[in-house]
Amino acid sequence: MTRRTLKLDLPSEEETAQLGRTLARLAIKGDVILLRGQIGAGKSALARAFIRARLGAEVEVPSPTFTLVQTYDAGPVEIWHADLYRLGDPQEAVELGLLDAFETAICLVEWPDLLADLIPQDALDIRLEVARDSHVATLTFNDTWHEKLDTLHVGA
Known about the structure:
Elements: E1 4-10, H1 13-26, E2 32-36, H2 43-55, E3 69-74, E4 77-83, H3 90-95, H4 98-104, E5 105-110, E6 124-130, E7 135-141, H5 143-149
Parallel strand pairs: 2-5, 2-6, 4-5
Antiparallel strand pairs: 1-7, 3-4, 6-7
């Protein structure tokens, strides 16, 4: 399976939000989006913009840092927003129902490293990094996301 990489310069928080909104238009049931990066890199901001794009700009989108998972009814598909920072073992993610959600929902997963071998092969992997005057998003994906991302022009 061929993995591809796309780098996007996100010079403002609005550009990060636009990436989230664009991905929200592209994502379908069974899509898993991994959000990596240091604290403050924009993972939650991207997820919040994604969720609001699907549900409406006024919806409250709390961080799942303490609840571990927040779920949202987005019509025909549920959205799961997970933060695995506080988990100590991959089995805990299984107990949360995350593996089942990978098949039945759209999943946004912050701090996904804990999942290791449980990460779906067709997941979209986004690494957010803080550069000097902006943020950089590095998207890594396979053929499942390649066609969808051909239409992506955020920050490019």
